[in-house]
Design a protein that fits this description.
By secondary structure, the protein is mainly beta. It has a domain of 92 residues: Immunoglobulin-like, CATH 2.60.40. The protein is 14% helix and 38% strand. The protein is built from 1 helix and 9 strands; from the N terminus they run H-E-E-E-E-E-E-E-E-E. The chain is elongated and about 50 Å long. The N and C termini lie far apart (57 Å). About 15% of the residues have low confidence.
Length: 136
């Protein structure tokens, strides 16, 4: 009888430890659509998230005056693109959509010379657990 009680106690403890160290639920992924467009040179360098691990970025050449990337990302990962043309006089723009909603846009006309950049970090969804009147 004592052996059964000890085994039962051990089983409950093992189950509790398993629950305590279980992996947390995965955060929801978001669908990302990133666009870059330009006039002038045939190809430009663009810094964007490394796929499929969005925790760092890489730079690659894109050609044709327009580029669209569609992928999924977790909160905390890089999303979007940072076009980096060597010729600052080209017309340049970028757009970023998260789950179908416009999240950010930037544009520079010829001669504008400002840094067009749509590279961002995907924020975690906002949630509030408490009385509705206390929300800010």
């Amino acid at each position: 009888m004592l052996k059964k009680a000890i085994f039962a106690g051990w089983a409950v403890t093992a189950f509790a430890v398993t629950l305590a160290f279980a992996a947390p639920a995965h955060a929801a992924m978001s669908r990302i659509v990133s666009e870059v467009y330009w006039s002038g040179p045939a190809c430009i360098p663009v810094r964007s998230p490394h796929y499929p691990d969005g925790s760092y970025t890489q730079t690659s050449m894109v050609c044709g005056g327009h580029s669209t990337a569609t992928y999924y990302a977790f909160p905390g990962e890089f999303i979007g693109a940072d076009p980096q043309p060597e010729d600052a006089t080209v017309t340049l723009g970028c757009s970023l959509y998260v789950d179908g909603n416009s999240a950010y846009q930037d544009y520079a006309r010829d001669g504008d010379h400002h840094d067009v950049n749509c590279l961002r970090v995907l924020p975690a969804p906002y949630s509030y657990d408490g009385p509705a009147q206390n929300r800010m």
